[in-house]
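Changelog-adjacent note: as of this version, every example in the card shows the full chain rather than a window. The one below runs 258 residues end to end.
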Amino acid sequence: MGRLRTLVGDIAYDLYGHRLTSALPHDQLPAHVGVILDGNRRWAAELGSSSAYGHRAGGEKITEFLGWCEDLGVEVVTLWLLSTDNLSRDPAELDALLEIIEETVTSLAESNRWQIHPVGALELLPPRTTAVLNQAKESTATVSGLLVNVAVGYGGRQEVVDAVRSLLQEQSAAGVTLDELAKTIDIEHIAAHLYTKGQPDPDLVIRTSGEQRLSGFLLWQSAHSEFYFCEAYWPNFRRIDFLRAVRSYAARNRRFGI
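Full-length structure tokens:
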């Protein structure tokens, strides 16, 4: 009887997911989706398990999520895996988390389905982690599938600081004085030096776990993004949750201003 209930539940879930997908206006879907993968530790704690167990479950969810994005024709996904603030965590927990991130990114790259692009202050990370991220980028550079930004050691304020620093260094090397730069600098100058330069800004930003804040995620790029906050912890995030987020996005009137 229990198995029959499970089967009926699975069928109902699939039918509901199909209905949600069919109802989506395919000319109003997001091209770039950013995700704050929040709730791994709380999910594990409620199960009486370790933080590492939660982070590993969260890492395993990523492949499934990227498949959902592919199905809808999303072109770019940005996944926030580790913030600059997270770098001050307990060393033992941080080491375990970095190891899981390395395994996850390596697995994504080895699938040869997606183009991996690390974003963040990689110089703040252990050399081993930086090497893994760079290897993933190099090995998938010619893959034509979904572009996946993996944000590791990422902070929105840090990104803006790095962009301005890079711009100043570029202009100084070209012989431009500070006074000259101050007179000509504009939004596009800084945008051209962001970690995501050349990519479209995120249309939709999703945060799981019920928290309703961005915490600096894609601070510059999300100026005109639509936000969706989901109660589910990231390991429990379902395809139906994703489709509901996209449905909410598609129903909004985007004014790109106040």
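Structural remarks: The first strand starts at residue 32 and ends at 36.
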